[in-house]
Every structure is written in C-alpha cells, then in structure tokens.
Amino acid sequence: MAPGLLDLVHLTTWAVCAVIKLPQLVAVLRAGSAWGLSVSSLLLELAGLLVFLRYQIYYGYPLETYLEYPVVIAQDVILLGCIMHFSGKSRRALFYAVIYWGGWYMLTLQKWIIDLAMNLCTLVSAASKLVQLQHLWETKDSGQASALTWGMSVYASATRIITTLMTTNDLAVLIRFIVMLILNIWVTATILHYKKAKKTD
C-alpha cells in the first residue's frame, strides 16, 4: 500500500473515531433513557480499550496506529456516565473509576502481565459485543442503540486490520481486529433488524 493511501486510512479512521459515540450519546440524551444499552457491555468494552491502549504504548507502537483510542475511551466514559445516570446507578461510577485507574497501572508491572492482558483483551472485547447482542435478543428491541455508532465501529475495525498488516504486523492485534469486525457487523445487523421490525409493527 502506498504511504499516501496508508495515511488516508489512518486519517479517516481518526475522523470516524472522533465522533464514533456521538450518535449513541445523542440518542440517549434525546430520549432521556438508556433503554436497549447494556452497562455490562460498555464496562467490558472500556476494559478492552484500556488494555489495548496500554499494550500499544508499552511496546512503543507508532502513535498513528492507536491515536483514536484516548478519544474513544473519553467518549465511552461520558456515555457510561449518562447510561448510569439514566439507569439510577450513578453511585457506582467512582468504584469503577478506581478499578480502571488501578488496573491501568498494574498492567505494566511485569511484561507477562501486559502480554496476558492483551490476549485476554480480545476475549473481553468480544464478550462486550456478545453481552450487547444478548441484551438485544432478550428485549427484542434496539431501544436507543445506535446503528450508526456500530456501523462506524465496523469501519474502524476494518481499517485497523489494514493498518496493522502494513505497520506492526502484530498477530494478537490483528486477531483482535478481525474478531471485532465480525462482532461489530453482527451487532449492527441486529440493531437494524429490530429497528426495522419496530417500524413494521
């Protein structure tokens, strides 16, 4: 891939991720409800993102391969705060903040810890998508879940497969993005299915 094309892929990924959670956040704020969204799914997603970011920093990977992660994490934290507020679980926010903050520092105490965490990170991130899918299947209602946000996640996963192959070629990272791509497509399709079913009722 030509360097200019690789730069374009990086740039579009950053642009998408800069606003990736905004459609979801707008839907929640507009409805004043977190119906259709799973707190457990978001907590797992946040854990996976933090581990992945820490892994990239620890191994000194090029900044352009993970620049979007701090922005996505910040958006997840805001979205999680809104969801916890609307679901009456605001008091748990401090507890989760302490756990994540402590985990961030413990990850790099030993090399084997960050390596193990990265391997488990794919399972945790996959679990976050599966929890959201289970929530959708149980309620048979996409509620405030945003197909646009999940669709942007599909794009980001697909482009990161390309950039990983072209830059670090890290197998653990590549496997993570392939798994995320498949599950993001699945969640997006499920949300669209339930939105369509609701319109025809």
Automatic annotation (TrEMBL):
The keyword Transmembrane helix applies. Keywords: Membrane, Transmembrane, Transmembrane helix. It comes from the Eukaryota. The keyword Transmembrane helix applies. InterPro entries: MannP-dilichol_defect-1, PQ-loop_rpt. It is found in: Membrane. It is a multi-pass membrane protein. One of its GO terms (cellular component) is membrane. Coiled coil: none annotated. The chain crosses the membrane at residues 42-61, 93-114, 173-194. Pfam families: PQ-loop (PF04193). Its main location: membrane. This is PQLC3 protein. It comes from Peucedramus taeniatus (Olive warbler).
